[in-house]
Amino acid sequence: QVQLVESGGGLVQAGGSLRLSCAASGSILSINAMGWYRQAPGKQRELVAGITRGGITNYADSVKGRFIISRDNAKNTVYLQMNSLKPEDTGVYYCSVHYGRDYWGQGTQVTVSS
User: Fold this and answer.
1) pLDDT tier for residue 15 given thresholds of 50, 70 and 90
2) Alpha carbon of 47 to those of 59, 89, 93: distances in Å?
3) CB-based contacts of 111, cutoff 8 Å, min separation 6
4) 51 strand-pairing partners
5) Residue of 30, 16, 36, 43 whose CA lies nearest to 107
6) What average pLDDT does this structure show over 54-64?
7) CA diameter of the chain
8) Helix/strand/coil (H/E/C) assignment for every residue in the chain
9) Is residue 73 left, alpha or beta, with left meaning phi > 0 and alpha meaning psi from -120 to 50?
């Protein structure tokens, strides 16, 4: 069983920055894929960024050049540095890891005001 605890969401003005963190705990040996998803009001959940244990990353086109995903394997923690935030980045951000199956965090609200 894996537990995920997210932190770092909040309210920020357009053009600002936020950093999200997600720490995984439990009986964990090695987590491969870790990622961040978001869900805006009235929309489906979408992948924002993903990262493998080896550091290979992928991003949604809408965040490329603005967001950076990283991880600390020793701490089983994944981060999302969000820069140049836009109002359309508003939503609930969820951390997800794949460890036998997919696990999800509780979500953290990110609100970007114009």
Assistant:
1) very high
2) 8, 12, 10
3) 10, 11, 12, 90
4) 34, 57
5) 36
6) 97
7) 43
8) CEEEEEECCEEEECCCCEEEEEEEEECCCCCCCEEEEEECCCCCCEEEEEECCCCCEEECCCCCCCEEEEEEHHHCEEEEEECCCCHHHCEEEEEEEECCCEEECCCEEEEEEC
9) alpha
Tell me which amino acid residue 32 is: N
Chain segment 63-102, per-residue pLDDT in tens: 999 999 999 999 999 999 999 999 999 999 999 998 889 9
Can you tell me the distance from the alpha carbon of 2 to that of 41, in angstroms, rounded to the nearest whole number? 27
- Give burial (CB, 10 Å; 0-12/13-18/19+) of 20: buried
76: left (phi over 0), alpha (psi -120 to 50) or beta: left
Q: Which amino acid is at 5?
A: V
